[in-house]
């Protein structure tokens, strides 16, 4: 035997052992139904990336995520869907509140800022006051006073119609107290004070009076539907606030508040002659 040949011979290598596993380990199937159940941001982003190859996300997916109260999924979908419609904004505010909508607006201003009027309408008319002052801070007082919704209502009309005192207080704090909100009439010629009286919401009526808002625009039709205790309260408020008017106009306004017929004084007698 030649030992020199052994030193140069290749080393023996045993054949690799084949894996006993005949199949690849099963991977979790990604579907929209399973994605809605995810709540970790990383898992949601991975799932949406896979689903995005086969489906096109739309507002329908946001509505389904809202129905499950899945905040991280809604945030991720807002980033992928453009544009966002008003129905989606309404559902977002109703389901997760104003505070969550403001978070979306901070992250996606171009998509959310055009929908501030709709977000305000939903927040006021559904009494979603969790962060209403912060949302109002992003619009001007002139906008709050002048923007008109269905039927010519302003935000003040919407709050007064349902007797939402907290929402009404937030609106009044946002505008100048010297502005007479009750000079604003909707298409039915009703003021916020008229609607507050018709809703028989004592708190909203008192709030409007405390803020020094025009007190001579409450229509006769609205007053006659008030309970007697509210009319009595209003008559006391009027008696204190009409010091600049003569006796004829004082009696006329008090008669309207108490539902008692009275002749209308002439325009010449509206103010006391100094």
Structure write-up:
With 274 residues, this protein is mainly α. Helix content is 56%, strand content 0%. The protein has 17 helices and no strands. The protein has helices at 3-8, 32-36, 41-51, 59-67, 71-80, 86-107, 109-112, 116-125, 132-136, 141-146, 155-162, 165-174, 192-198, 202-210, 220-224, 228-241, 247-258. Helix 4 packs across helix 6 and helix 6 (86-107) crosses helix 8 (116-125). The longest helix is centred in the middle third of the chain and has 22 residues, at 86-107. The protein is elongated.
Give the helices and strands, then pairings:
Layout lengths: L2 H6 L23 H5 L4 H11 L7 H9 L3 H10 L5 H22 L1 H4 L3 H10 L6 H5 L4 H6 L8 H8 L2 H10 L17 H7 L3 H9 L9 H5 L3 H14 L5 H12 L16
Helix pairs in contact: 4-5, 4-6, 6-8, 8-11, 11-12, 11-13, 16-17
Q: Name the helicity range.
A: 55-70%
Shape: elongated
**H/E topology pattern:** HHHHHHHHHHHHHHHHH
Largest sheet: none
The strand count comes to 0
DSSP strand content: under 5%
Observed structural traits:
274 residues, mainly alpha, 17 helices, elongated, disordered C terminus
TL;DR of this structure?
The protein is mostly helical and 274 residues long. It is built from 17 helices and no strands. The chain is 56% helix and 0% strand.
């Amino acid at each position: 035997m030649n030992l020199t040949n052994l030193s140069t011979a290749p080393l023996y290598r045993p054949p690799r052992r084949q894996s006993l596993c005949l199949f690849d380990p099963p991977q979790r199937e990604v579907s929209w139904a399973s994605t809605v159940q995810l709540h970790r941001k990383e898992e949601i982003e991975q799932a949406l990336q896979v689903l995005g190859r086969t489906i096109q996300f739309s507002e329908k997916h946001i509505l389904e995520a809202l129905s499950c109260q899945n905040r991280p999924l809604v945030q991720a979908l807002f980033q992928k869907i453009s544009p966002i419609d008003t129905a989606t904004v309404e559902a977002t505010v109703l389901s997760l509140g104003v505070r969550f909508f403001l978070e979306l607006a901070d992250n996606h201003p171009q998509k959310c800022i055009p929908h501030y009027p709709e977000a305000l309408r939903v927040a006021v008319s559904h009494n979603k006051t969790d962060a209403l002052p912060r949302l109002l801070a992003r619009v001007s007082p002139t906008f709050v006073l002048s923007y008109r919704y269905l039927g010519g209502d302003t935000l003040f009309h919407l709050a007064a119609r349902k007797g939402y005192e907290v929402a009404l207080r937030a609106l009044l704090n946002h505008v100048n107290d010297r502005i007479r909100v009750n000079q604003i009439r909707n298409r039915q010629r009703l003021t916020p004070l008229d609607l507050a009286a018709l809703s028989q919401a004592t708190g909203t009526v008192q709030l409007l009076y405390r803020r020094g808002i025009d007190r001579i625009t409450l229509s006769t039709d609205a007053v006659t539907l008030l309970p007697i205790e509210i009319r009595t309260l209003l008559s006391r408020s009027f008696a204190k606030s009409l010091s600049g008017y003569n006796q004829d106009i004082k009696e006329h306004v008090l008669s309207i508040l108490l539902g008692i017929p009275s002749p209308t004084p002439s325009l010449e007698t509206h103010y006391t002659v100094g």
